[in-house]
Amino acid sequence: MATFNNINFTSLVTFNGATVPAAPGATELVTWDPTPAGAAEGDYYQMSGTSTVYRYDSTLGFLVRPEIYEFSGTKVLDETIAGTEDGAALTSAGWTVSTEGNITTSGGWTIIDSTSAATSASVQVGSTANGMYFAGYLSHSAGPSSNYEGSNSISSGNGNFLYTFSSKKTTASTDPGFVKTSGADGDVKLEQVDDFNLASTGGEWVEYYVISGSTTTEQAFAWIGHSESPVRFCIGSLVDSGLNWVIGSCDASQGGKIYIKECYFARLV
Amino acid sequence: MKFGGDITMQAAAPGDPITVLDSWDPNPAGASDGDLYSMSGSIYCYDSTFGCLVRPVVYKQANKYLEAYITGSEPNLAYVKANSGFPSGGGSCSSDGTWCTIPAGVNYWIKSIADETQPALYYAGYVKSVSAPTSNYAGVGTIIMGTRTGHFGFAARMTSGGPDAGFVKYTIGDMNFQTTPSGSTFDLTVSDPPWVEIYLPEGITDSLLGGAMAWIGHSKIPVKVSGKLPVAFPTHERWLIGDGTSGDASIALKNSWFMRATS
Q: Complex ipTM, two decimals?
């Protein structure tokens, strides 16, 4: 907290013309904001109600996990999706969109609807074995039509595997996580029970990190709802040579519908 | 305008200070409960119940208990049983004044957790491989988080080949998933090994799909993740350190906290 003549402030920059010293340490966020006003490179933020700490990365332009911030190589922000984009807007932004009319916007969420036809948007990025970091709000609406398919998912292809994070993995459970698609689970749970439900109001802030340099085995962690530690670890992905981000139906399956907003698609080279 | 005393403007809650550590100190001078520290880019919280820095996922738990603590100077098994939080054990151990060594053979410490099911378990400390296992991936030379549905064992050295540490099944078998680039090795055979943390989330055995995780050398991400669990101990949860059930290996410990927590 900044202090000026024994008066404590948290957001004032100047007072009666005098500069108020910058607040040290972690700033608590009562509501999540991946791009808090005034954030400077390396600043610490802590999500209220959790012990989870983030850092502002000026290269990527949003709050990231410390493990991402500290990455020693090059960080690249490939794409963002605010939630106001429809299929035409994604096409204009460089995404390759299938069934453009099935991607709409509510004004706050971009909705990818594969309930009547497999619908996706993809963008080609990077080179083999890049690390990849996704962060954004996901809200589940429909699907899957069968267990562990990819019609309601976000996927990252790093040239070795297609890592697929499903907003709901099976027909019976609300649980999200990694799927291998083709009917195969791809998860190890690093928390106790199926206690996540992305269909809840507002969805959840989801982050996943495909580790840079992974070549022979799948290596990706996921955090959900600002969890302090990873809650999912990927042990099963399709062997795939693609270099891409895919949203919606990553495997041409039909039945899913997801809402996304404030999404960041970043790469660690 | 004049103010008569300290005034706090209504706004977002204040942030906690973060202290960046250049060298590791698990209980830094002046630390207060909840204080944030950073080491090698990893975030820790000072936990006054445990009396040491822990990962945020451990700090956030509501009910926390320090089960055992090993300084490294414990001279023998009788002392460990009487003073260190491991009331049961077998065989022997000794100290050079800095490291407490559990020799190869059937030598072990046990702390049973009789009255609670499926708590989170967290180890933080220095553990060193003194000698390799005589059988690869044997549950020997280990720090085991035993549950009623499975044992998660962290071996300071998993095989007689490379020095890599990681999770092994009890009584024998590899149970790691690789979480770092191919070929990565975490060597605890060196004289000054890195800080090790092992964590089993609360209730992990409910689904039979969960895993334990380990951070080594203040790694930012867990560098070891265990697979599904094998042998259970049906009576209660427990810490089991050392062991010699299916082969021989020797480990040494110092500055080691053995912790339990529930939400």
A: 0.89
